[in-house]
Design a protein that fits this description.
The chain is about 5% helix and about 35% strand. The longest helix is centred in the first third of the chain and has 8 residues. By secondary structure, it is mainly beta. The strands form five sheets. Strands 1, 3, 4, 5, 7, 10, 12 and 15 form an eight-stranded mixed beta sheet that branches. Strands 13, 14, 16, 17, 18 and 24 form a six-stranded mixed beta sheet that branches. The protein has a four-stranded antiparallel beta sheet with strand order 6-11-8-9, with no helix packed on it. The termini are far apart. A hairpin with a 6-residue loop joins strand 17 and strand 18. It has a domain of about 150 residues: Jelly Rolls (Sandwich), CATH 2.60.120. It is built from three helices and 24 strands.
Length: about 300
């Protein structure tokens, strides 16, 4: 009992440290904090023995206890060890070109698909997966996003989330599972969050190349947006595009969002009501997370996602 007490941290009432925080710190790799990341492609990474690669966690103000994000680097011509994760995870390709292999369990069909810079895809919950670098001359970097902190607060057993023998009821054997996302017309305004159409699928080949967006006057004149839905998942995403020297209205929402910039240059302003404003400059592959109920707006942007 005495040995167990030394190993297990004491969780006090109203503790600001979550189970995910303790798990994250135990891995011994960098944890990047603050209001924004200027460039995810250049942040410091260190070797994570368990995953067989260089990696780093990101926990910006506004993510604590809600969402998890990290950057993974795959060496030239190499594949990472297979891993099975219990939660849905969105992956965004920051740099490079590669291949992902996904399968439900031993003996089940495997699905392979290729991706490039600025692709986005979903790795479904309770599936084994391997990331491979198809380039022989330089590493690739991937950005990962999930709601692991919330899950760990509900079930504080970290080992339950990795390589668990539970078999998923979702199957990637379907030939369309990683085909290019399709545009779906919203049946009514509520379904499409006020938009006429949204994109539905598990694979978005190049976020910079999309041009079929709807006008989104709620966010400022001239702005356009597209909303994305992953089948059989409650994870969602959207991308907004703004012409030079146009205005985006300030708005606020709950915590945990990760804003990644696919293209363009500009800056965002964030502030808690009645308090000092924070200026966050950004460009391709910057990351911003507005804290809970903080207003944020883009005065002179080109494109954000």
């Amino acid at each position: 009992m005495a040995d167990a007490a030394k190993q297990e941290p004491v969780i006090t009432m109203w503790s600001m440290e979550f189970t995910y925080d303790r798990w994250m710190k135990s891995k011994g790799i960098p944890i990047h904090r603050g209001y924004f990341i200027e460039d995810l492609r250049t942040i410091e990474l260190e070797w994570w023995e368990e995953r067989g690669c260089k990696s780093a966690f990101i926990q910006l103000l506004g993510q604590e206890g809600v969402s998890a994000s990290r950057v993974t680097e795959v060496p030239p011509g190499k594949s990472l060890p297979p891993v099975k994760f219990a939660l849905d995870e969105i992956v965004y390709v920051l740099s490079g070109r590669g291949l992902t292999t996904v399968w439900a369990s031993e003996g089940k069909p495997k699905k392979n698909f290729e991706w490039q810079e600025h692709s986005m895809f979903l790795v479904p919950r309770n599936h084994w997966h391997v990331f491979s670098n198809m380039q022989g001359d330089k590493p690739i970097r991937l950005f990962h996003y999930s709601y692991m902190p919330m899950a760990m607060s509900a079930l504080p057993e970290p080992d339950m989330y990795f390589n668990n023998p539970y078999e998923s009821k979702i199957t990637v054997a379907d030939g369309d599972f990683y085909s290019e996302a399709k545009m779906v017309q919203a049946k009514d305004a509520d379904e499409g969050l006020g938009m006429r159409a949204f994109w539905y699928g598990n694979f978005f080949p190049d976020m910079r190349a999309w041009n079929k967006l709807d006008a989104n006057e709620r966010r400022g004149a001239g702005g356009k947006s597209v909303f994305m839905q992953f089948p059989n998942s409650e994870l969602t995403a959207h991308m907004s595009v703004f012409a030079p020297k146009t205005y985006k209205k300030a708005h606020r929402h709950g915590p945990g969002r990760a804003i990644i910039i696919p293209a363009g240059e500009g800056y965002s302003i964030m502030w808690e009501e009645g308090k000092e404003k924070i200026v966050c400059p950004w460009h391709e592959c910057s990351m911003i997370t507005p804290p809970d109920k903080w207003f944020h707006q883009v005065p002179w942007p080109r494109r954000e996602g």
